[in-house]
Amino acid sequence: MAMFTEIHPTEALKPYVKRFYFYEASSDLAFHDVVFPSGNMEIIFNLGNGCWKTKKEDTFQTTPAIELWGQLTKPLVIQSVGKNCMLGVRFYPHSAAYFFRENVSLFNNDVMDGAEVFGPAIKTLHALLLDLTSLEDRILQLETYLLSQLILPKKKYSKIKFVEEIAKGLRSNASEERIGSFSERHKISSRYLHQLFSQYTGLTPKLFCKINRFQHSLNLMQNQGQKLTSVGYDSGYFDQSHFIREFKLFTGTTPTSFSTQATPINQILSNV
After folding, report:
1. Residue 214 to residue 243: CA distance in whole angstroms
2. Is the confidence at residue 204, as pLDDT, over 70?
3. Please, which residues have CB within 8 angstroms of residue 217's CB and are 6 or more apart in sequence?
4. How far is residue 240's CA from residue 226's CA, in Å, rounded to a whole number?
5. Pairing of strands 85-91, 59-62
6. Rounded Cα–Cα distance for residues 113 and 68 (Å)
C-alpha cells in the first residue's frame, strides 16, 4: 500500500498554496495511469530511485527531477518506473502566477523542468530535500523557499487578486451574461477579462468552469457511489449526454467505463 500524506501550509503561505502532499510507493512495480485536468498547477520534487514518464503522441518521455505541471486541459497518460517518492506543491487556480514572471498559459498541457523555470535556487532546494529524511524538515525547507520566491509587485498583486475574485464568482457559472456583469462592474471589456484570466490561471473562464464541474462529478463518483444520472444533475450538467461528453473530454472514457477504484497517483494529481 502506498503512503500518501496531505500537509496544510503555514499561515503565511495559505493564500498561495492549497496544500502540500507526500507520496511514497511501497513497490517498484511499474504501472500506467491517467492524470485528469484539476484546474491547478503544481511543482513536484522527485525524491525516490524510480522515475515518472509522460506520454506524448506514441512515446513516453522521462519527466525531470523537479516537475512543473502546467494546467491540463485533457487527460495525460503517465507511467511509473521503479520505486517512486515525491513531494508536491499544489497551488490554487490563480496563485501559481505569484511565483512566475511568465504568462502561466505558456505551461499548459506540459510537464516542464522546474530547474529551467526557477533557476539554481530550486536545484539547491531539491538537493537539500534529498538529504533530509524527516517530512517535517522537508516541508519547512520548501516553505522557506516558496516564501523567498513570491513576486508581489503592487500592480501584479492587484491583478491576480482580481482574477481570484472572478474565479470565485465563476466557479459554477461562466455564462457570457455572468462574465459580462463582471466586466461592467469593473469597467473593463469582456475581452480584457478573458485575457487576464487566461494569463494568470492558464484557462479561459468557460474552461475553468467546465473543469470544476467535472471535478465535482469525479468526487461524487469516487466518494459517494451515486447513480450516474444523479451525479450528472448534481454536478450541474444539462442532461446525461452533456455529462458523458464532458467527462470523456477530460478522462478519455465514459462515466460507465470509468473505474472508481482510482490509483493514489490519479487521486493526488487529479483531485481538487
Report:
1. 8
2. yes
3. 231, 232, 234, 235, 237, 243, 247, 255
4. 14
5. unpaired
6. 6
As a whole number, mean pLDDT of residues 128-145 equals: 97
Question: Which residues have a Cβ under 8 Å from the Cβ of 195 and sit 6 or more positions away?
Answer: none
> Can you tell me the distance from the alpha carbon of 146 to that of 128, in angstroms, rounded to the nearest whole number?
14
- In the chain, beta strands by DSSP E: 3-7, 17-24, 31-35, 42-46, 51-56, 59-62, 66-69, 76-81, 85-91, 111-113
Reported as type and span, the H/E element at residue 118 is helix 114-118
What's the pTM?
0.91
pLDDT digits (tens, 9 = 90+) for 214-255: 998 888 887 666 788 888 888 888 889 999 999 999 999 998
Torsion of CA 4, 8, 197, 168, to 10 degrees: 110
Strand arrangement, sheet containing 76-81: 31-35, 76-81, 51-56, 59-62
Three-class DSSP category at 124: helix
CA-CA distance, 126 to 165, in Å (whole number)? 33
How far apart are the C-alpha atoms of 90 and 269, rounded to whole Å? 9
